[in-house]
Amino acid sequence: MPNRSYAILGTGALGGYYGACLQRGGLDVHFLLHSDYEYVSKHGLVVESIDGDFTLPHVNAYNDVSEMPLCDVVAITLKTTQNHLLPHLLPAVVKEGGVVLLLQNGLGIEEEVIRIVGPQQQIIGGLCFLCSNKVGPGHIRHLDYKEIKLGEYAPNYRPCGVTEQMCQIATDFERADIPIRMVDNLLQARWEKLVWNIPYSGLPVVLNATTDELMADLHTRSLIKQLMSEVVKGARSCACTISDDFIHYLLEHTDKMKPYRTSMKIDYDEHRPLEVEAIFGNPLLKAQEAGANLTQLTMLYQQIKFLDAKNCGCVAKNY
Description:
The chain is 46% helix and 21% strand. The protein has twelve helices and ten strands. The mean pLDDT is 95. Strands 1, 2, 3, 4, 5, 6, 7, 8, 9 and 10 form a ten-stranded mixed sheet that branches. The longest helix is centred in the middle third of the chain and has 22 residues, at 186-207. Strand 9, helix 5 and strand 10 form a beta-alpha-beta unit. It is of the alpha/beta class.
């Protein structure tokens, strides 16, 4: 399939950046937008990047999925808080025999999607290591990193190796100057991403801090290590072994990262719903079902649930 077409469902900081890179790399890309549709359809996309700024004056922009063509690869780049829209969106845009590419954080989301598209549909999970923000309509600022890990989904997250479709998609992204790592165990890769995502998504909200502030303080740095160790414990309960060296590796990389207000902190500051269940609740539930007792993750989950509900004006009542 030499000329794969891509649909980007969610043209924000992540989907806007990767979709723009794919189009600049010569791919046929179609963008679904909501609030930015009028602006982007007239003016295109602007990407400020540490790798060099670029502008796409003309993009295939849509605000109605029914007007989009059927595409070979449908990249879901919405926040998981919008996944209730997928039963409407996916059937309208994914080709028969096409691929659903889940570029979302958290755990258990492939299981949600397979219930929509059916077991015959190929689903690939993508773990994005990207520091990027949307700073205005159609305006993406890429701050650091951009690698994606790709892993194919099989029922119950059974490891299924590196597939031909993964290799084809990897070729497209690498053509767009996006580094790709292909993994044979998607569940392992998702738990590894959670070792970073759980502390650096939750603590900035609870403590009102950026990544550099958390790393600079002795007490919060210790708390990050404790949370990471507990996520590793949860992963092990699900038969995913993560070494203690991996924690050291993540801390080193975060020390080198530019000061960053993480995606969940931005959502919180903008009074948008937080991805609580995908990032905290689903991993916690899977670990608990496997017999793990994760006390600090449980506390962080409950704190984030409270703050999210309060922030949206819907605190749960204990009746």
